[in-house]
Design brief:
The complex is a heterodimer of chains A (218) and B (248). Chain A has 218 residues and is mainly alpha-helical. Chain A is built from eight helices and no strands. In chain A, 80% of the residues lie in helices and 0% in strands. In chain A, 27% of the residues are buried. In chain B, strand 3 and strand 4 form a beta hairpin. Chain B is built from eight helices and seven strands; from the N terminus they run ββαβββββααααααα. In chain B, helix 5 runs antiparallel to helix 6, helix 5 crosses helix 8 and helix 6 crosses helix 8. Chain B has two domains: 109 residues, Ubiquitin-like (UB roll), CATH 3.10.20; 131 residues, Orthogonal Bundle (Fumarate Reductase Iron-sulfur Protein, Chain B, domain 2), CATH 1.10.1060.10. Chain B is of the alpha+beta class. In chain B, strands 2-1-5-3-4 form a five-stranded mixed β-sheet. Chain B has a two-stranded antiparallel sheet with strand order 6-7. Classes of the chains: A mainly alpha (218), B alpha+beta (248). Chains A and B meet through helix 1, helix 3 and helix 7 of A and helix 6, helix 7 and helix 8 of B.
Chain lengths: 218, 248
């Protein structure tokens, strides 16, 4: 049996892709927070990310592959795990032995997937259209205005907020769990769990704050 | 006390099972859960009905035979005990109790509440052993000094009785807690070093072949384990498995 086809190998792959996506999330929230501080700084950072060839043609494809890998592997594992118990219990009482978050990662993940669909529709597709289909002239001042425009619709802001709450729930279990999958469970584990908890709460709430800030201030 | 029992009845592996209701009265709170089932079976036998088949052996919490899912929890509502150690004082007069077998693809039902747990045996046969020279000059195990912490952790892991509560509790029917306990008890000791890398890969491979699910770190197995086997064993098995694959 090869490493990646084993149950542990798949979990290791999930953990590594999760850590990669978590590091991207940190970069993303840092750039988005600039929009609250200064429109100019946000435009500058976005222009760099949107035009730098390393970011565009190396990091971006790796990111897309990372996202796809994490979701596909998540579905594969969910399917295999479900098939390990073909006959369900008449009565199952899980409340006392595990958290709701840990048992429902697939559902929080599906909401995040739906959000990513909207996110691609909102930001990624217009970017492709702007740069590689319409071949419009580079405008380093457009990013902030586009961001503010996207947060005008209260329905979109609502879905955005709900998605990030689900991301928080996904991270609350997933972040610390990724360490266990990689075999890290030692004297540092309590500290890791606290750090992972803080990240899982602060980063998604920062995204929600940014959306609400622009919705109510512009 | 009077109780309403809802028990899974299934003639054999090939037939479909169903929950059957039984009323049982004058159950003493001092009875063990298995004694209560003994009383029910005596009543059923006296009426000419088929008694409920269930597994049991030592009735003192060390053999791991008496594996029942009681009101949705492996070994019932009491933590850190097996079904045979569960007493009827944990229930109230008029309670309804749902009794099912542990459910997993790798644990097919033999009859009623009896399941076939030979998948665990096959996982153990794949690597849970050490090679010792038995030609007459076997070294005394006590001649090898072992760090106290390692010895304690190995002993804790070795206290797993292989009851299958971890599989029953896990939403993925994963056997990782059981397998990791067996991997750990040898990996921590000098006697287990010779087959260390082969052991973890072979046991994990057999575990996957048997059809158990993967671990999603919900912690349900640790919470329901009657012997308190810790999740640190799963982390150790993951390390052993990654290390073994990197070396090969």
């Amino acid at each position: 049996m090869s490493f990646i086809s084993s149950s542990i190998g798949k979990k290791v792959a999930m953990s590594l892709s999760a850590f990669f996506l978590i590091s991207f999330l940190l970069l993303h929230v840092a750039i988005n927070l600039l929009s609250v501080v200064s429109a100019e700084m946000y435009n500058e950072a976005s222009h760099f990310m949107g035009t730098n060839p390393v970011v565009q043609f190396i990091m971006q494809p790796i990111l897309i592959l990372g996202v796809l890998f994490h979701f596909i592997m998540g579905f594969v594992l969910e399917f295999q795990n479900k098939s390990a118990r073909p006959v369900k219990y008449e009565m199952k009482n899980n409340q006392g032995n595990s958290s709701w978050l840990s048992r429902n990662m697939i559902y929080s993940g599906l909401v995040i997937l739906a959000f990513l669909g909207l996110h691609f529709y909102d930001f990624w597709i217009p970017e492709i259209q702007y740069k590689y289909i319409a071949f419009e002239a580079p405008d380093e001042h457009r990013y902030f205005a586009e961001l503010v425009h996207k947060f005008e619709n209260p329905l979109r802001v609502g879905f955005y907020a709900v998605s990030f709450i689900l991301l928080m729930m996904h991270l609350l279990h997933g972040f610390q769990s990724a360490f266990q999958s990689l075999g890290v469970n030692n004297k540092f584990t309590p500290g890791i769990k606290k750090t992972a908890w803080a990240f899982s709460v602060v980063v998604p709430l920062a995204f929600v704050f940014i959306a609400l800030f622009h919705h109510f201030n512009h | 006390m009077d109780l309403k029992l809802k028990i899974w009845r299934q003639k054999n592996a090939a037939t479909k099972g169903k929950i059957v209701d039984y009323d049982i009265s004058e159950v003493s709170s001092d009875m063990s859960f298995l004694e209560m089932l003994d009383v029910l079976n005596r009543e059923l036998t006296e009426k000419g009905d088929e008694p409920v088949s269930f597994d049991h052996d030592c009735r003192e919490g060390i053999c791991g035979s008496c594996s029942l899912q009681i009101n949705g929890r492996p070994h019932g509502p009491d933590g850190g005990t097996t079904t045979c150690q569960l007493h009827m004082r944990k229930f109230k007069d008029g309670d309804s109790i749902v009794i099912e077998p542990f459910r997993a693809k790798a644990f097919p039902i033999v009859k009623d509440l009896i399941i076939d747990r030979s998948a665990f045996d096959r996982v153990q046969h794949a690597g849970a052993f050490i090679s010792v020279n038995t030609s007459g000059n076997t070294q005394d195990a006590n001649a090898t000094p072992i760090n106290k912490g390692d010895a304690d952790h190995a002993f804790d892991a070795a206290s797993c009785i292989g009851c299958g509560a971890c599989v029953a509790a896990c939403k993925n029917a994963s056997a990782m807690l059981f397998v990791s306990a067996k991997v750990s008890q040898y990996a921590l000791l000098p006697q287990g070093q010779v087959e260390r890398e082969m052991r973890v890969t072979d046991m994990v491979s057999q575990m996957d072949e048997e059809g158990f699910g993967a671990c999603t770190n919900t912690g349900a197995c640790e919470a329901e384990c009657p012997k308190g086997i810790s999740l640190t064993n799963i982390a150790r098995m993951n390390r052993e498995f990654i290390g073994s694959n990197l070396k090969s």
